[in-house]
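Entry for fe (ii) ion complex. Fields follow.
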Amino acid sequence: MCGVCDEVLTAVDVGLKRSRSPQALNTSNKARAFENLHVRLPRPVAQHPANAKPPCSARNLISALHDGGIVALPPNVASLALVKASGELVSQGLDLDVVSSWDVIRAIQNPYFRLGGVRETLSKDKVFKAHLAAVCRSIGLWVDTKVDAPRLRSITAGAERCAAAAPVYALHRDTWYGCPQSLVIAWIPLHDVTADEVFAFYPECFKRPVPNTSRKHDHRKWMQDVGWHGTTSPQNFAEAEANPDADLGSTLRWDLKAGTILLFSAAQLHQTLPNPTDGNTRYSLDFRILPLCDSTAPNVDNESSGEQTRIDAEFWLVRNVPT
Ligand SMILES: O=C(O)CCC(=O)C(=O)O
Ligand SMILES: [Fe+2]
């Protein structure tokens, strides 16, 4: 029995140990399911609702997220290795010494257009696929779990005044962009962040519809007309965005350490807000996780389409990647 959430754990921690062994993939379906579900999760460093029972297994975690929960798990070996590799890559992209401190990196002016190669490497490089697979395994997500490529966010103070950057600050649910309701997101700060540097959640809107234009997003059409490296700028394409006059309730964000694994449903309403510190850029990675599960988040207002196209084009199986 797990002392934290009362779930019966017959194979606690076995998954994490076995996940390093290739033979584990050949075990029976039952054993594989244990490996997916029975890594004991550490106590969250932050959680919504604040008084919720902390999830102790991947199964608990995913159903809490699908119910509107938000969970920040502490940095671990896998997430810190991802942070280190990303820091080296960003330093190289900015022509800095590979061991530059984040204070130095964050003070570089106008980094966005110098980081195209870094974004490309993150989306294709096998090393980063292995890092993502290791992060998923570290939190018990393995069997038939799929993920997409990590995205680097660099949020520079003042960029919100640039019209071309407006989509970055759009209030949204990720589901509005042709994503399945069961999708969850992992967001990892690459350096310590204060709450006012983190994007904001509007958790009261999780089960409440918000006016939006998601019906314009057909992911099949988006792939044809825009694509991740297409020539049509995303600003000219139909965008999902909420009515700015809507009542969204209170906002939620926390101070987080580098490597924290912040997990939330793609159906959570959220928004990047301007970086408040002049001359400074905030760096983070995020990737989407399609878990093997029997639950899903409620759909209150997502009218986008093309989710299967998106899964087929962008997602890959965690267990196919050697770590
Ligand atoms: O990093 C941010 O500011 C926004 C992240 C986001 O929207 C996401 O991960 O879905
Ligand atoms: Fe998002």
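NOTE: Residues 66 and 297 are 4 Å apart (CA to CA).
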